[in-house]
Design brief:
The complex is a heterodimer of chains A (382) and B (101).
Chain A: H1 14-20, H2 30-34, E1 45-50, E2 55-59, H3 65-75, E3 88-92, E4 100-105, H4 108-117, E5 123-128, H5 135-141, H6 146-155, H7 158-161, E6 166-169, H8 179-186, E7 189-192, H9 200-205, H10 212-215, H11 221-234, H12 236-249, E8 252-253, E9 256-257, H13 259-287, H14 296-313, H15 321-341, H16 351-381
Parallel strand pairs in A: 2-3, 4-5, 6-7
Antiparallel strand pairs in A: 1-2, 3-5, 8-9
Helix pairs in contact in A: 6-8, 11-13, 12-13, 13-14, 13-15, 14-15, 15-16
Chain B: E1 14-15, H1 25-29, E2 35-38, E3 41-44, H2 55-58, E4 65-66, H3 76-85
Antiparallel strand pairs in B: 1-4, 2-3
Classes of the chains: A alpha/beta (382), B alpha+beta (101).
């Protein structure tokens, strides 16, 4: 989104922005108005460096407790959309006109990770306006892209601040950035660095060559575990919707409707919904590579069936045998749906693949849910 | 660690070797080691692992990579969100901020 964008409302924000951060005057600072509030605390700014172009804020490479608390909060999905820093150029250590320029996104979680790994270096950090989204997702959307990079290089007058003509990008930014077009438009050569910020020191030491290992995206057990808290919170709407809908419907009986009956059913229903939720959001992602089939929704279905069968065999499911069967169908279908949603968090699914998967999975989920409903209707009718 | 695979039969990735000048950019940007340079010539060696992120195609100055990147990421939640809004797959939230980590 350029500054000319009507939604930006920049004209009212110039003063505010210039007070907050010394961004060049021609950068209207759309981010402050159109993208919601930026964190007021800028504790990471510890000084400033005077350059030929402008005064550049100098930032710390040490994270403090508030940064770690912020990271913890966004892992749990708390105010995640507003966890951002102002785009622009920052100084790490005491950089000069020969120092490296690293490029990153303005999601503060990403920004923190990068500055932490630039510890001990003298470098420039160019932060693009990705609207508070991490590098890879933003690159997929094009906000971490050729246009924004070229624009940010010009806005910060990077050509006056450094005498070399190269910028180092995280490899995953390549989805949105065309290196040859950046060179054409700005004169700067794009060097793709490692996937992970933790590899930056080794990358620099290896004379700016990213090894095979540094270029590979992984998705190991710990990577998946880190995603679980956010998914628990993010999908809570489905959990609550299921709980409410099923509880309300559970008041239906042969005499009409009983609110007392619906209220009595809330706890047992919560148990069933929670079982499907845990199966789809916690167990399936954690066990991902060990569950047969490549299909996420079938992985979720399998775990859902296992979990519900275990509950059944443990006599933990309430109601008659027919109700139990309905519960098994429901848990499996709910788990399958939630596991399907994990495709987006994974690091190896293609859009075409997900569409193919959904074509089979959604009907299966609908059929399973329908079977559960039919069984419950039978139970009432009998 | 074992490499995770998704559906390879729907992938559209292709390398047109007549156009390729073997610059090696695709090797540098691919997150799944799909390309490999052998005897100064570029080959697709891990097609099954392609996730169609589009990094290679975007960074190929020769236009030697054919890939239908599509409109959005490999994310079921995004496809559902898009279907509800009647748009292309999107992450939703204020200015699309709630996507994956």
């Amino acid at each position: 989104m350029g500054c000319s964008d009507q939604k930006c409302g920049c004209e009212n924000s110039n003063e505010l922005v210039s007070l907050q951060l010394k961004v060049p005057a021609n950068d209207c600072g759309c981010q402050t108005t159109s993208d919601g509030p930026v964190p007021t605390s800028k504790r990471y700014i510890i000084g400033s460096i005077q350059t030929k172009a402008s005064e550049i804020p100098q930032i710390s490479t040490r994270l403090d407790w508030k940064d770690y608390l912020g990271a913890f909060k966004v892992r749990w999905g708390i105010r995640r959309d507003y966890y951002r820093v102002d785009p622009g150029l920052y100084a790490i250590g005491i950089p000069n006109e020969r120092s490296d320029v690293f490029v990153t996104a303005n999601y503060k979680f990403t920004f923190d990770l990068v500055r932490k790994n630039l510890f001990g270096m003298n470098a420039w950090l160019l932060v693009l306006n990705t609207k508070g989204v991490n590098v890879w997702c933003a690159a997929g959307k094009g906000t971490f892209g050729t246009k924004e990079l070229v624009r940010r290089i010009q806005l910060t007058s990077l050509d006056k601040i450094v005498i070399h003509r190269q910028v180092i990008l995280p490899q995953l930014g390549a989805t949105g950035v065309a290196a040859h077009l950046v060179k054409e438009a700005s004169g700067f050569t794009v060097i793709y660095g490692p996937v992970r910020a933790t590899d930056i020191p080794a990358f620099v030491q290896a004379n700016y060559k990213a090894s095979k290992e540094m270029r590979r995206v992984k998705f190991d057990w710990y990577d998946r575990l880190k995603l679980v808290p956010n998914d628990i919170i993010y999908n809570m709407r489905y959990l609550l919707a299921m709980l409410i809908v099923i509880s309300v419907l559970s008041g239906i009986n042969t005499n009409g409707y009983s609110i007392q009956q619906a209220l009595r059913n809330i706890i047992p229903i919560a148990k069933i919904v929670a079982a499907g939720y845990i199966a789809g959001i916690v167990l399936t992602p954690l066990l991902l590579p060990y569950i047969p089939t490549r299909n996420f929704s079938f992985k979720g279905l399998i775990i859902g069936i296992i979990v519900s069968m275990l509950l059944f065999l443990n006599h933990s499911l309430d109601g008659s045998l027919i109700v139990n069967l309905a519960e098994i169908f429901f848990i499996s279908s709910f788990s399958s749906f939630l596991a399907m949603n994990f495709t987006g968090a994974s690091t190896y699914t293609s859009l075409a693949g997900v569409k193919k998967e959904m074509k089979i999975a959604v009907p299966v989920q609908v059929i399973f849910t329908a079977l559960a409903v039919i069984l419950l209707v039978l139970e009432i009718a009998i | 660690m074992e490499r995770l695979r998704y559906f390879s039969e729907v992938l559209t990735l292709e390398l047109i070797q007549e156009k390729c000048n073997n610059c090696g950019m695709c090797v540098k940007v691919c997150p799944h080691e799909v390309f490999e340079m052998k005897d100064k010539k570029m080959y697709i060696v891990g097609r099954d692992f392609c996730m169609e992120c589009g990094a290679c195609k975007r960074n190929c100055p020769q236009g030697a990579i054919l890939l239908d990147v599509g409109d959005g990421c490999g994310c079921a939640a995004g496809i559902i969100q898009g279907a509800f809004n009647g748009t292309a797959p999107s992450c939703g939230g204020p200015d699309e901020g709630t996507c994956c980590n």
